[in-house]
Design goal:
Blueprint lengths: L4 H9 L8 E2 L5 E6 L2 E2 L7 E8 L2 E12 L2 H4 L11 E8 L14 E3 L7 H11 L15 H29 L4 H13 L5 H10 L2 H5 L5 H11 L10 H17 L20 H14 L3 H7 L3 H6 L13 E3 L2 E2 L9 H23 L2 H13 L6 H8 L7 H15 L8 H8 L1
Parallel strand pairs: 5-6, 6-7
Antiparallel strand pairs: 1-2, 2-4, 3-4, 4-5, 8-9
Length: 426
Amino acid sequence: MYISEGLLQFIWQHRLIRPGQLFCVDGRQIEIQKPGMLNQHAGPDFNHARIVISNTLWVGDVEVHTRSSDWLLHRHHLNAAYDPVILHVVYDHDMNISRQDGTEIPVLCLRGLFDEALGYKYKQLIGAASKFPCEALIGQVPRIAIESTLSRMMVTRLQEKSAEILNTLKRTKGDWSETFYITLARNFGFNVNAAPFELLACSLPSHILARHAHRPLEIEALIFGQAGFLDQSFSEDYPARLRSMYGFLKTKYQLCSIDKSLWKFLRMRPHSFPTIRLAQFSACIRKSAGIFSKVTACRDLKTLYKLFSDLPVYPYWRTHCHFGKPAAERSLQPGIGSVENIAINTCCYVLFAFGKHTGQPKYIDRALHFLDAIQPESNAILKKYADAGLTPNNAFESQALLQLNKYYCKQKKCLNCGIGIKILKQ
């Protein structure tokens, strides 16, 4: 059976070698005091290992290969960074390897030193034709191990989201209100139209909208005009008025609209059309002037949800999905799922980043409290885990599962996943 280099690293890192005396291929006795730290960068696989060979303590690096000859295949013999290697760990020993100064590197061959069933279990994980690698085995994993993994995933996700928000903050020259406005706009695009929504927000600073806070139609004219939807003539009164207003405001503020072709309508339900989302976004801006300060003042979810509920969307959109094209009547309000999505992906992450960046732990705590209190999301990805018996209890866990799916399950990195490690070590 073929054993991958990754699995050999896993066996070495977690010391899954059968107990008993160990010997190098040249017969010298070996004792592993510390396997070393897994190196995530260029160079040997493990650093700072402590190995006793024939009663002599060696401290240095360890390199792991499927075959000894992989040392030459990977051209380590030409790289001085591999001279500190004190042990070459392999599955098959097919040749002796020396450092650049000619000294031979001790070799430990792992064939027969670990349970071969581990290899079959790993192959079952990465080769499974299932919704995610451990779908059939995750039921064997204790809940505490799953929760521990999800907590680590969420720490990573919070760091990742904070970095994105701080990049936006840098572009806005430290303006948190503008940063929130751009992040909120992107969230109103709900993935499919996130990019054009962000472009729209960047092309239309929130301070311009603030000047028209008490003139609703002018806000809508600015938003729909900048989105590129007012570049034609209309027979209906509402869009015709918006077009006329936008013509004046565009010149006044020297604005340049984005290309209308950027917006995606294909394979979307009408309530998710970008035109409806833009109408809701306009209403949200009109309703909650100075919205960032209102979000930072929120201490409970009910107050937070009110900022994005009961929006004063212009009635025209009750019977339209496009300008000039009547359609069946529908509700204009975002559903509870959409409101929760905004609370999670805009409010919680911006609050967390704001608290971390400004050194105010109360906002970090509030963000985490909200994530614990919000209902778990419902989508196709999370349904896969629910069908296998792994149902998140709240938004904190559903966000963590999305992180797990994106960076581990999809890439089949079971050897680096807390759940995968638990399964393999059982």
